[in-house]
Amino acid sequence: xxxxxxxxILKDFGIEELRPxxxxxxxxxxxxxxxxxLISIPTASGKTLIGEMAxxxxxxxxxxxxxxxxxxxxxxxxxxxxxxxEEFKNKYERYGLRVALSIGxxxxxxxxxxxxxxxxxxxxxxxxxxxxxDWIDDVSVVVVDEIHLINDESRGGTLEILLTKLxxxxxxxxxxxxTIGNPEELANWLNAELIVDDWRPVELKKGIYKNGIIEFIxxxxxxxxxxxxxxxxxxxxxxxxxxxxxxxxxxxxxxxVNEAKKLNLKKFLTNEExxxxxxxxxxxxxxxxxxxxxCKTLAECILNGSAFHHAGLTYQHRKIVEDxxxxxxxxxxxxxxxxxxxxxxxxxxxxxxxxxxxxNRGMRYIPIMEIQQCIGRAGRLGLDPYGExxxxxxxxxxxxxxxxxxxxxxxxxxxxxSNQAVLRTQLLGLIATIEIRxxxxxxxxxxxxxxxxxxxxxxxxAKNINEVIRFLEEKEFMIDFIPTELGKRVAELYIDPLSAxxxxxxxxxxxxxxxxxxxxxISKTLEMMPNLRVYKSEELNxxxxxxxxxxxxxxxxxxxxxxxxxxxYDWISEVPEDEILKKYKIEPxxxxxxxxxxxxxxxxxKEMAKIIGKNSEIPEKLEIRLEYGAKEDIxxxxxxxxxGRVRARKLYNAGIRxxxxxxxxxxxxxxxxxxxxxxxxxxxLGIKFGQQKLIF
DNA sequence: AATCCCTTGTTCTAGACAGCATGTC
DNA sequence: CTAGAACAAGGGATT
Length: 696
Description:
By secondary structure, the chain is α/β, with parallel strands linked by helices. It has 31 helices and 20 strands. It folds into 5 domains: 2-196, 3-Layer(aba) Sandwich (Rossmann fold); 204-407, 3-Layer(aba) Sandwich (Rossmann fold); 418-484, Arc Repressor Mutant, subunit A (Orthogonal Bundle); 495-629, CATH 1.10.3380.20; 632-685, 5' to 3' exonuclease, C-terminal subdomain (DNA polymerase, domain 1), CATH 1.10.150. Strand 19 (478-479) and strand 20 (482-483) form a beta hairpin. The longest helix is centred in the last third of the chain and has 24 residues, at 588-611. The chain is globular, with a radius of gyration of 27 Å.
């Protein structure tokens, strides 16, 4: 497809002129379908559009009709996938392209072969691959957003293996990356043309704030009027009173909340804004019934024109905060790294409060790349004359580091394939899908990884790999590179083989069938880490309870797993959410996250039980109970569409205990949960019953 | 004896991907 | 390498 055809399509969405990096990519042969690309340019400078041009080039023909080739767009977050899905659907369905979203908890359609453009995550694509996708040969282009995530300790290895697999096919790969230290290396490995550029649509002024003055890297200085002795407050007010808005990046959730509390901007709000903010605050309080402490704090901040944003918020909370910020109602968001990746949420002034962060190896500097991505948030196209990225330096050491961060190039990225958990999961995946059938395949595959490309010497990784291979063989996931039934199933379930082994051992050694024991088994897996912290005062009680269940090991990790199991038990016992949160000292978002993981792992445990011939009924029940957070007696009601834990409990207490009761007492049901919903439920059931009759 | 102030000790720390089933005239 | 806030506990002085 010639370039001008692409430009014509872009005009359909109002894009008249390309930006410099986009032009550069075209000049270097982006539309040559056999040429891979690595695009390393700043946030918000039009990376995605480069990927889109490549997609259009493959998916549409001269007459703007589908070519029936496939394109895949890989993003790092589910939230981002949903956002892109909506965007692409709006843009490309008019040409007859069928767009699908395929992420963990949501599938557009089981049969993705009918779609042209698939939006997904690396893990999901990997998982699809394990379930044997038959359409991979139709794929002719893959765009990988935030490809530098290959550097991520826990998830990078998966992306790397996926890319290594994709490279074997005749597929054009377009990697989109933030600015990184060693783009050449990554590009060479990908056999890709490299585009590096620092062009930005809005100028970014980088500066360090110290002693009441912002010193910009370009030499300018700006004195900040001190209203009080809170540096962040003064910086925020300085921006907000000119009609701007800010994002403050913090290194802890508590820090983000505390900063947000201190930023009272009432003085700068119009009455109209105050009224609307009140509505937003009420919306926040309506998410959870009753509202938790966190909800109340957030609502109070919002009345002041500020907000916090971190993993403790539920998705609904986050969405409300993000939207209110986009609508310029909320003037400042104090956040953890939740906002440093992905999401399009620009501001006029991005403030970095902390340069270090606590890790499992103690306090460490936050990578230059991450901070550059944070400050890259500054500058709203068409709204701000320029963006300001400011680091707050508390002392001389901070000042030096800030200067480094703002002027030096980011760290190089490194393969994280040495991560044992990733290696176990990935090698089993490759063996289960018969992509690796013997030692030669294995060696050949490893040689093609980024790891091998970077380190050359394979001796170190060979040791790791042999260990994993031995483990897989010993635990009967495979015999002589032939996957066993167990191995295949574990690969499909997408759990760490080590977790599968824990589960199987646990099921075999089980002395009783208490619900809590099953919850304990899944809490012991790596996938559930980190577990809840156990305080000294709790230890003896926990050990006591564990002994009664026949658990014999009382390492601190075991106690933590058991405490987590107890929390999950409370969840499925319908203990009110706010009570659970208080008791275990966590926030709503974290509870949801834990529960989501637990549902997945309980499903895996059920499958493990089936495979080794153990009772799978209890895990099956627990899976449903975890999903809804409910007791056993209302499971049947929960299986009915439109009935969740609250409606089910109401109905149950009123004597409606199963599907039959619903059908026989529609008016009673309607009086409890409303007529509209009852009608919907009956409609749904009617169809189901029709099908059942056919079977009889 | 109750209260207050200051010092010392202790605790705690970011984020977020993955599974589904169901046989068959 | 590259921490610092928040809170609890304890000691001593003051009222």
